Amino acid sequence: MLLRNILVASLVVCVSSPFVSAWTFSDATLAINERSGTLETRPFSMSVPLPEIISLPSSALARLRFTVRSDLTPDTNNKPHQAYAIIEDPVTKLESSFPVDVRENGRARVDIDYKTIPTALLGPNKPLTVTIVLASFGAESPLKVEIGQVQPVYNGPAPAGPIRFGPKPEIIHIFRPDSKFVSSTVSLFFSAIVVFAAILLISSWSYLGVMPSKLLTALASSPLGHLGFFTSIVAIEIAFFNYYVGSTIFNLIAQVSVLAPIAFLSGSRALREVRSRRLKGEW
Amino acid sequence: MTPFGRGIIRILGFQLLALVSLALALSTTGSKLLVVLDPSINKEDYSIFFDDLKDRDFVIDFRSANDPHLSLFNYGERAYDHVILTLPPTQKALGPNLLAKPLLEFMANGGNVLVLVNPNEHALGSVREFARELDIHLPFRDTKLVDHFHFDTAASPNLHDTVILDPATSLVAPSILPGATRKKIVYSGSAFALGNNQLLFPILRASDTAYVYDPAEELLASDSPFVSGTQAYLVAGIQARNNARAVIVASSSMLSNDAIDAADSANRELAAGITKWTFQESGVIKLASVTHKLANTDEENPQIYRVKKNITYEAEISEWTGDKWVPFVADDVQLEFTMLDPYYRLTLTPVGANGDSELYATTFQAPDQHGMFTFHLNYKRTGLSYVEDKRTVTLRHFGHNEFLRSFEIPNAYPYITSVVVVVVAWVLFTVLWVFSGPEKVPEKKTQ
């Protein structure tokens, strides 16, 4: 290998000259070729790049032809060691290089086949810049010139990129909708109807002449029975109300187990008194 | 467990010196460093590099690759914390202890590996295989990286193989060379290709006009470069899922005294940056604490929450600077609240420093779905230690006494009114029934 390096070095040294020399190219064209034939051919040069973006269909290839010239050895060797056509996505800076086939007389040709373009460079509306690089060992100035842009025709969504670590999109849980309630106005209206019906019922009783006219008589004949009966009935209702508002079932059972015997005993006395009145005909 | 705790058990056979310096180590995983160095390599050529490592409290054990007692393991335990592998130019193989499998096993046990490929010799099969396991593809033997646009005109006026790299464009991982530098990186050697593995940590790449050629095959023209342009990588690392790190440097010559002493060379800083990352001195973060609780309460980490309650999650993350832990501030730390799928993925807000760690917090409403949920903090970023934490809690449904009461629901008003009306009317009816009677006793009709 060392031998080869020396060979390259000596080859380079023997052709070096004191003036600044450079790699150049001329007679350049870019042709879009399909199997059926050439679609279009555009000329370009080192100073005048392609004016517009060239479209490259998926079944085609872009063929660059140009003539390379070495200032040092224009008659014997016009073949640089590095002759690349580089396509680059100017946004992501990803690139891919295509070695150019150069003959010793300087005739150069490279095919940028759509099929050989890496998928990372493909995408809708993703023009790729094409750069020609000509360079070699020794003192000759290298050449790197951008010749224009090519847009490989690509339909459909952009190819997915590789998996990389990074933040993922946020997710916010969507709750089930809350249950819907009627407006309290409507609800209160129907409640009012219920209350109204009750008032109607109670007032119809008094219309029929039903009045607690024997209250004092009854209390006088069986005070313990009636007071105990009604107090325990109201107390049981209050116990149920407490349970509804927040007390526990055990409280309720305890309270009712006390109140129920009272209601039973006092109730039987009270009802006995009522029966005695009914038997007297005071129904 | 402290970063030093595990190491102390393992160094029973080691000298007292090692014990002392272990406690002072700048690396978070230990200071025992094995350098596999071939006798044909002159250690003095790399004296600055190794002296810098010694200054950072590494206890270096220089061994030859054909040392019969060389082993990465001691009774099944890792014998070293870190390994630097240089490729011996005089041998064809590295021996059975440095095959790809023991090296990978060393990494699986948490060890860190730095491989310095010798530019003048072909990479050995075992190292090539090891690199391939990491998705790093070493070049063919005897290849060279050249750049006709950026080369050292004094060192390689004709061959253009001493390449000058600008850190601004070539350094993929800026954290390796902290602080802007106008110095350049001097490089000569080959370059490798990287796969698409997300665990990879690319560090240094070639400039866009560089390419790798094979002097044996491509003497006259480069017609099929192994890699070219910015796809040619010179230094790349990988961090395994257990946070063990491996770095492959395509040319050991960039760490040599010649390259470090070259005018305007940033190689010494780069070498320090590479070894600091490889040996867990930089890019190391840890989770200091994790708490979750009901919002605006004090009880930490309860086992059970109710659906639709507000939950506060807090995590503290620290970063190792080489001598102490400091708060680690980032704006992309995310929390997932997961039952099979994430119901929430929220970015945590850095709230402020809490001692030597940064406090991250978020508050969210528990989903209306009961089950076993996991707070999943999964912070994995290229070049940083992976941080992951999972806490599973129960999310219970509403208790029977936790629903809305009927008097809070407008729909229920007519029914409640009806019940009240029935109770009142019934009591009234009882009163009337018991106490009613005619005003006067009707006269008995006499027949």
Compact summary:
With 283 residues, chain A is an alpha+beta fold.
Task: Indicate the topology.
The complex is a heterodimer of chains A (283) and B (447).
Chain A lengths: L1 H14 L7 E12 L2 E8 L9 E3 L4 E10 L11 E7 L6 E5 L1 E2 L4 E7 L14 E8 L7 E10 L31 H24 L7 H7 L1 H23 L3 H31 L4
Parallel strand pairs in A: 3-10
Antiparallel strand pairs in A: 1-2, 1-4, 4-8, 5-6, 5-9, 7-8, 9-10
Helix pairs in contact in A: 3-4, 4-5
Chain B lengths: L4 H6 L5 H9 L7 E5 L10 H9 L3 E5 L9 E2 L2 E2 L3 E5 L13 H9 L3 E5 L8 H9 L2 E2 L6 E3 L16 E3 L1 H4 L14 E3 L5 E2 L5 E6 L5 E3 L19 E7 L5 E5 L7 H5 L5 H12 L6 E10 L9 E3 L3 E11 L4 E3 L6 E6 L1 E7 L1 E6 L2 E9 L5 E9 L7 E10 L16 H23 L12
Parallel strand pairs in B: 1-2, 1-5, 5-6, 6-15, 17-25
Antiparallel strand pairs in B: 3-4, 7-11, 8-13, 9-10, 12-14, 14-15, 16-18, 18-19, 18-23, 20-21, 20-24, 22-23, 24-25
Helix pairs in contact in B: 3-8, 4-5
